[in-house]
Amino acid sequence: MTRTDMPETAAGSRSLVGLGLVICGVTIILDQISKWVFLDIVQSANGTIEVTGFFNLVMVWNRGVSFGMFSDHAELGRWGLSGLALAITIGLFFWLRKVGHWMLAMALGLVMGGAVGNVIDRVRFGAVFDFLDLHAAGYHWPAFNVADSAIVVGVGLILLDGLLNNTDKAA
Question: Which residues are designated catalytic?
Fold first, then answer.
C-alpha cells in the first residue's frame, strides 16, 4: 500500500486543510508586507535600487499576467484576471480538501496565497507591483514579487508531488 492509497482520516484531512490555509495566509501577509515596504523604498529612489551586480529592486506595474502578457487590456486585467485568479483559488481550495499528504497541502497553500496576494494588488492599484529584478550578462528576468515566487514554488511542489507520489495503477 502506497502513501496515496492509505485511507484518510477526517482529523488528518482537517489538519492538512489547516496547514494549506496557514501557508496561504502567511504567503498573503509576507507578500503584502514586502510590497508595502519596497514600494515606499523603491519609489523614494526614483524606481531602481542596485543591490548587487545581478539583483536590483525596481518598480514595475504589471497590468497583465505573467511577463506582462495581455497588459494592453487594463480593465480586463484588473477585474477579469482577478476574477479568474479567485475562481482558480476556489478550485484549489476544493482540491486542498482532498489532499492526503503535507507536500501537496503546502503547495496548494503557496499557489492560493500567491494568487490572492496579486489579486489584492489588482483591486487596490489596478496592477500588480513587481519589484525583484534578477539580471546577468545584460539579460533581465521579468520583475516579480513574493506572490509570484510562491506560485512558482507551489507549482514546482505540485509537479514534484505528482512525480513522487504517483504510482502506476496498471501494474
Answer: 130, 148
